[in-house]
Amino acid sequence: MNIPKSHPRFVSLQTREKLVKGFDNNLVAKEGLLAHGRGEAFDYLIGEKTLKSAKKAISAAAYTLQNAKSPVISVNGNFAALCAPEIIKLSRILGAKIEVNLFYGPESRKRAITKVLKKSGAKEVLGINPKSARRLKGIDSARRIVDKDGIYSADVVLVPLEDGDRTLALKKAKKKVITFDLNPLSRTAQTADITIVDNTTRAMKLLVVACKKKKVKRSYNNKKVLSESISEIKKNLQRRAKLA
Ligand code: ATP
Ligand code: MG
Q1: Under CATH, domain 52-235 is a member of which superfamily?
Q2: I need a surface site. Which of 140, 153, 163, 204 has the fewest CB within 10 A?
């Protein structure tokens, strides 16, 4: 790479390499690589840095997670490949459970993800015991399966790169959904209670820091914060186009 290490693009290329390595190790699905590509495109437009609006969403997410009765962190291959140490830190700070939850997933991938999480320090990983499997209503196929001790009985679920149908199913099951999604227009972004429009690689670090501090309740309107993120992206693009 001939890009200075300080340049955000350098980090973005390193992240891409982690995903490719994750794919080679059966951690990340082909579809996960494509989802990452979609994310990269949005990250490019965002300017590969955390927007002010995303910081507001992170703060609201921290308050909600700190005050949850049974928070669960849902983990897929991409999230494990990019953020395993932060997932463990967050689960420790909050006393949150970790559940492997895939929409493209043979058992071998679930095992690979569990292994990475345990190697990073996770004591317990849910979502792998078929006896604990329960079904979410209103969604078809394997994507509806969740763990009875995890997402099924959670009040707040942190889900990265989620699919719109599943986000809706989680909402119908009365879960509070916090998501990371670089695309403020996706169905997930629009359906979740709190949408952090930022790369998980940056936002998870900030969320860990935020969850260590005692948060106070502030009013939060996801639709408003999403529209702020779109305005910020627009301004960012206009500024960059003038510089070109
Ligand atoms: P939806 O089903 O919610 O409408 P979609 O079909 O547009 O979304 P999916 O392929 O289901 O997209 O999910 C991938 C989403 O994850 C994309 O919106 C993409 O921007 C986002 N994404 C990918 N990588 C990251 C990342 N590292 N951090 C945050 N978001 C990401
Ligand atoms: Mg989708």
Answers
A1: Phosphopantoate/pantothenate synthetase (3.40.50.12640)
A2: 140
